[in-house]
Amino acid sequence: MTDEEKRVDIRKPAGHHCFACGTANPIGLNLKFYSLGDAVCSEIVLEKYHEGWQDMAHGGIISTLLDEVMSWAIMYSKKTFVVTRKMDIKYVRNVLIGTPLTVTGRFVGEAKPPLVKAKAEIRDNEGRLLVRSNGEFVVLPEERLSTVPKDFKDEMFSLFESFD
């Protein structure tokens, strides 16, 4: 069985405005995710409007990609809401505009509760490592979700239950 055969698309809520993954954000990245073994991945080609220095992706966009795939890796693995506490990023090579990219995140493990850790990387279409990151995230218990609309919470909890 090849890696492509093991790929499982991950469903996400429709109609939300998250800059990274929302389907209703006209200026967002609209990332789509899939699982591959113990990883959650997304593929994207950044455009000129994602540019920092000429022909290079803006560092904030790169950070967003890493943050989002780590968050989804944790949510997929732990079936829970998380928010980012901190990230470190190592830029290894330039991330060029117009290059097919694969962003890969993995749940690393538990830290001191309520913290969990993840790692992520971005590779180009030739498999070269461009950027890597480690992140620490806070698991949010249901009582901390009081500002999240009930219908969205219910939709996300239903989504978590669908994760294998």
Automatic annotation (TrEMBL):
CDD domains for the chain: PaaI_thioesterase
Record-annotated Thioesterase domain positions: 57-127
PANTHER family reported for this sequence: THIOESTERASE FAMILY PROTEIN (AFU_ORTHOLOGUE AFUA_7G03960), UPF0644 PROTEIN PB2B4.06
Protein name: PaaI family thioesterase
Species the sequence originates in: Candidatus Desulfacyla euxinica
